[in-house]
């Protein structure tokens, strides 16, 4: 057994003896000599940066520059009336705390008490009837049919008067 492993041992020793020679690293030695020959302190200083100046965008409430300007004709603008005004003394209903645009009509119900509409919004589905109020602009429900809810809102005209503005909430079809 010793006789068989002897030639392999000699081959392994011969291979390892070749690793000790310094002739294979001449390019590495030349690079290190070049780096050592460079003058000390040749590192460039860091560039000077300007401090950050904050910017506050103050035109957020202005008209978008990508939209055409709105021309208001003050003469033909509808004037409000002092006779029309909301009843500020009545108790406000729950659905008046939300914008009317958030509501969608999703169905109707009917029984011996009358017709009711089902509106989705304000965190659920609500049953409303004629005479109920809906939306933030004192919107009173005038009529309910199978396709829509008619609402009359009372909105300020900007000159101290009030305007009646009719709106409809159409039935949302299945999607």
From TrEMBL:
Coiled coil location: none
Record bears the keyword Signal: yes
Protein name per Swiss-Prot or TrEMBL: Type IV pilus assembly protein PilP
Protein's organism: Pseudomonas cuatrocienegasensis
Record keywords, A-Z: Signal
Signal peptide: 1-23
Pfam families: PilP
InterPro entries per record: PilP (IPR007446)
Species classification: Bacteria, Pseudomonadati, Pseudomonadota, Gammaproteobacteria, Pseudomonadales
